[in-house]
Write a structure and sequence with these properties.
By secondary structure, the protein is mainly β. Helices cover 9% and strands 48% of the residues.
């Protein structure tokens, strides 16, 4: 336990103790290091031995499910997705907001971070019931994508929603006006502007 290799990097199982500091209570962390980076499951305990959280790491970054507890029980659950920090650049598919179903591939600098990914839930610790639930796909809230007419699939491909594809029917008055003014070169339309 608590071993370092010849290069001075933390390796294997570790138990770390942190004293009380600036009003924050003392706690202990247990988990594994791989080349000085957190790897796998890490747990945080109070000095009394109460479990405070369980986090999952990859490449020293949050990756997978994390659970946070109070003395009453489970308070919240989060999902994370870690980007490989060894890659200097990454590619993302960015939707075109002006053309339905069009995407551009953008190359971005990899900052080696964790992104919200999966279902995030907040629980009532007394009853265990879900109070709030949010769905994320690589740091984007899935409900927010619907505002732009998009949905996120778990495979990374985004598709337009069916509601965006539907053609809006024009009222009869608009059809009549368009038919009456078809072929005219310039049609004066009152816009309500004041001219300056």
């Amino acid at each position: 336990m608590n071993c370092k290799d010849k290069a001075g990097k933390k390796q294997g199982a570790w138990l770390e103790s942190y004293p009380e500091l600036r009003g924050n209570p003392a706690y202990e962390l247990e988990g594994e290091y791989e080349n000085d980076k957190k790897q796998g499951i890490w747990r945080k305990y109070s000095q009394q031995g109460d479990l405070l959280y369980v986090e999952s790491y990859r490449w020293g970054l949050l990756d997978g499910k994390s659970q946070y507890y109070s003395l009453m029980g489970l308070e919240r659950e989060e999902g994370w997705w870690a980007i490989d920090p060894t890659k200097e650049y990454d590619t993302l598919e960015v939707p075109d907001l002006f053309v339905d179903g069009a995407y551009r591939t953008v190359i971005v600098k990899n900052e080696g971070r964790s992104m919200r990914h999966g279902t995030w839930m907040v629980y009532d610790p007394m009853s265990g019931r879900i109070q709030k639930s949010e769905e994320y796909f690589r740091d984007s809230a899935i409900g927010v994508l619907g505002t732009f007419g998009l949905t996120a699939k778990k495979g990374g491909v985004k598709e337009p929603l069916d509601s965006v594809k539907k053609k809006i029917e024009k009222p009869d008055v608009v059809k009549e006006w368009e038919e009456k003014n078809k072929g005219k070169k310039k049609v004066k339309v009152r816009t309500g502007s004041t001219g300056y």
